[in-house]
Amino acid sequence: MNKDFNYSNLKLGIIGGGQLGKIMSQKAKKMGFHVTILDPTFNCPAAQVSDKHIIGGFYDKEKLEQLVQESDVTTFELEHVDTTILKELFDNGHSIAPSPYVMELIQNKYEQKKLLDEKGIPVPAYKDVKTPEDLASFGFPVVQKSKLGGYDGQGVQVLKSQEDANTKAIQAESFIEEMVDIDKELAIIVARNIEGEIKCYPVVEMLFDERVNICDSVMAPANISKEIEEKSIEVSIKAIQALDGVGIFGVELFLTKSGEVQVNEIAPRPHNSGHYTVEACATSQFEQIIRAVTNLPLGSTKLISPAVMINLLGEVGYEGEPFIEGIHDALEIPELSFHFYGKSFTKPFRKMGHVTVLDDDINEALNKANKAKQILKIKGSKEV
């Protein structure tokens, strides 16, 4: 991978044009870089703030090659992408980070879990599903996961009984995990640059909307002991070293009722659990990935203030052109920052924006964030 870049005229390519790509592009533009994004959607969020938009799908070999050829370094805001052409380009000396080989491994959640397990990193007990009988291997309840394509709660099914296994099981290549007795769901953003320098952000706690298993809010820092914090950081660093990854990685962790820390899964890109870093940390995750993939020194991950981030999801019962309800009242809440992604279409549970609230007292930050959540609604132009 090329380590020598002309930073006064650096061309950055981003595969994906959603909200993560948008904020990455904004940070890259602040540093004076030229940004080209690849996304199939006209006027997608990242296209609104980038220099160039190549309209094409993430499995369009020709458009992927065009992006890489036109860029000094290419990175990702999503993992579901064709890696075959990217591996060829990478092997021919093009700078792509994380490498397409890392992306390919992470795309397959079973192979990802297997590698972590082989490297001695604690993960929930798991088993490949080859026959319908395998679903009952651990008894019930059990968690079934698609090997490929899962995202934002998709591709995960909790099977509580043999009847569930007969009627609700995922009909695709999958594996099962034991149902972990979870105390808290934690996450850490880990950055690693080309030189192998590593920095970790604070350990955070994620709370989920159980209707769709989407992360609902994030508390930074997590309310955990120093011992659990150190264990979480150690496990997460080992996981990224095992992958030999370059960039930003969202490491999702389970803290079990017995105090064990296990890796759930890893996202090879900026992560929902790191949105709070824009306002609350010395260097945001979105600037950090730019630094990491262009071989700049990693920025400080110091937490300047406790923070709570709340996702703004499309309201149930609405779709179409989005309308923001309650923005005036929400912005009266002290130390609240409002992010709207600029998506042209809303639907139930679609991530449309987020708010981050700072406060010296994390519980007060949570109260203010929950107040904002009650006020702010993203509705659509038609009821469904």
Instruction: Calculate Rg over CA atoms.
Output: 20 Å
Strand content: 25-35%
CATH fold descriptor of the largest domain: D-amino Acid Aminotransferase, Chain A, domain 1
Helix fraction by DSSP (H/I, runs of at least 4): 25-40%
CATH architecture assignment of the largest domain: 2-Layer Sandwich
Quickly count the helices.
Answer: 11
Residue stretches low in confidence (pLDDT < 50, at least 5 long) are: none
| Structural class estimated from helices and strands | alpha+beta
Give a structural overview.
It contains eleven helices and 22 strands. The strands form five sheets. Strands 10, 11, 12, 13, 14, 15, 16, 19 and 20 form a nine-stranded antiparallel β-sheet that branches. A hairpin with a 4-residue loop joins strand 12 and strand 13. The mean pLDDT is 94. The N and C termini lie far apart (50 Å). It has three domains: 90 residues, 3-Layer(aba) Sandwich (Rossmann fold), CATH 3.40.50.20; 54 residues, ATP-grasp fold, A domain (Dna Ligase, domain 1, 2-Layer Sandwich), CATH 3.30.1490; 202 residues, 2-Layer Sandwich (D-amino Acid Aminotransferase, Chain A, domain 1), CATH 3.30.470. Helix 1 crosses helix 9 and helix 2 packs parallel to helix 3. The longest helix is centred in the middle third of the chain and has 18 residues. 27% of the residues lie in helices and 29% in strands. The chain is an alpha+beta fold and 384 residues long.
